[in-house]
Please model this.
Amino acid sequence: MRLCFGTIIVALSLNSAQCAPAQRLKDHSINTTDLKAGYEHVAARYASWAERKKKQHKSYLTYGGLGKLMESTRLATPAPIRKRGTVLPLYAVGGYPKMLGQTFNVEVGMGTPAQLFNLTADTGSTLTWAVQASCKETDCPGVAKKRTYDPSKSRTSKKLGSDHEAYGDGEMDLTLYNDTVHLGKISVNAATIGGADKTFEKDGELEHDGLFGLGKRLDVDTRAVLSALSKQDKRFSQTIALDLGANASLEIGGYDFRKYRKLVQIRVDDVFGWLLPRSIVTAQGAAQVDPVDLLVDSGSSVSMLPASRMDAIMDRPGLKVQKSTSEPITYAMPCDTKLNVHISLPDGTQIPVKDADILMQSNDANMPGCLSLLVGTTNPFLPAVLGTPMLKSIYTVLSRSATGDWIGLAPLAA
Ligand SMILES: *[C@@H]1O[C@H](CO)[C@@H](O)[C@H](O)[C@H]1NC(C)=O
Ligand SMILES: *[C@@H]1O[C@H](CO)[C@@H](O)[C@H](O)[C@H]1NC(C)=O
Ligand SMILES: *[C@@H]1O[C@H](CO)[C@@H](O)[C@H](O)[C@H]1NC(C)=O
Ligand SMILES: *[C@@H]1O[C@H](CO)[C@@H](O)[C@H](O)[C@H]1NC(C)=O
Model:
C-alpha cells in the first residue's frame, strides 16, 4: 500500500481499488505507540552521541578549543559556492505505521565492479556502510532482504580493521574497508566504508541496505566518503543539498543556487554534527522561548523539541490540543488545525513548516484527530532534532570548507 503515498500521477496508474479512501485512512494513521517507537529509535540514536559529546567537549576544552570556538563565532560565514553538483534521486521509504516513520534512500555503489545499494541518506552519522555478504540472519536480522557488500568480489577492496558503532536501537560490529565508492557518475577512489558483521534487531525491518553517512564530526573526518572525495579532487566542493519534496533528490558537490537565490546561510562551528545554532521553532502567537540548537538529521523520522518549547507552540489560544503525559510528549488535535509552525533563524528569517508534514491521522482512541510528528521530550540529554517530518518543508544545504562550515536553508520550492 506504500504506493498510495505517490503523487496523483502515480496513483492514476494504480488499480484504484487499492487506494480506496477507507483503506488509505487505515493504512496511514498512527497512534501514540507508533510515535513512541519512532521516538525511542531517535533517542537510542543519540544515547551514545550525547555521551560522546560530553566526553569530547571536555577534551576539546582542555586543548583550548573554547577560545577557538569563541573566536570562530565572530568569523564571517564563507561565501556560498555557485556551483551545481551531481543530482541523485532519493527514494522515500518506510513511513508509519509500517515502520519508524519515513526516511530516504539513495543508490550508492561500492567496490569494483560496483555493487549497488540503497542506503539511507543520513546527515546524522558519518560512516557509510552496508551489511556484509558473510553475515547470517542470526547476527544481521533481515539480511535475506538486503543487498550485501562482498569485499572478495571487489578488486579494489582493502581491509583496514574493525569498528564498533552505536546506531538507532543497538550496537553494530563492522569491518572497515578502503574501497571505491560510486555516486552516480562520481567515483571516490579511496573511501573508508563499513561492512556490517552484526547489526541490531530493528535494522532488519528498515527498508535499506545500510547508511550513507553525510554527517560531520571532526574527530572521524577521514571516514566520511565526501571528505575522501574532496582529498581526491581539489575542485570538489563538500556541499550537499537535500530536497525531500515530491521529487526528492540529493545533490552532491553543489546546490541549485539559481532556484534558491534567497538561501539563508548559517555558520556552523559545532564539531560534532550539523547543528543549526540558536534557532527557534515557534508559531505566530506562541509564547516566547529561548533559542535552541537544532540537529539537522535526515536519518531521524520524528522531529523533537524540549517539551517546554512544544508546549509554547501547542498552548495557543484558539487551538484545541490534547497532550500526553508520558515520554515522548505527543499532541493530538483536530486534523484541520492550522499549526503554522516556523523555524526562526538567528538572522530573523522565518522558514515555514507545512502542517501536512507534521500532522498525521490518529487511530488512537485516547488521542483522536491528528497526531503531531513533532514531539516533545523532557530528557535534557537529548538534542533537539530536525528530522524528516520538518526537513520535508525545507531545502537544506550542508557545506564544508577550509574557511568554515555552514547550513543553508530556504522554504522548499515546488
Ligand atoms: C497502534 O497502531 C499500530 C498500527 O499503526 C497497531 O499495530 C497497534 O496495535 C496500535 N496500538 C494501539 C495501542 O492502539
Ligand atoms: C533502490 O530503490 C529503488 C526504489 O525502490 C529501486 O527502484 C531501485 O532498483 C533500488 N536499487 C537497488 C540497487 O536496490
Ligand atoms: C586506500 O587505497 C588507495 C589506493 O587504492 C591508497 O592510495 C590509500 O592510501 C589507501 N588508504 C588507506 C587508509 O589504506
Ligand atoms: C525529478 O528530478 C530529476 C532529477 O533532478 C529530474 O531529472 C526530473 O525531471 C524531475 N521530475 C519532475 C517530475 O520534476
Remarks:
- Residues 70 and 269 are 9 Å apart (CA to CA).
- Residues 1-26, 60-74 have pLDDT under 50 and may be disordered.
- The chain has eight helices and 25 strands.
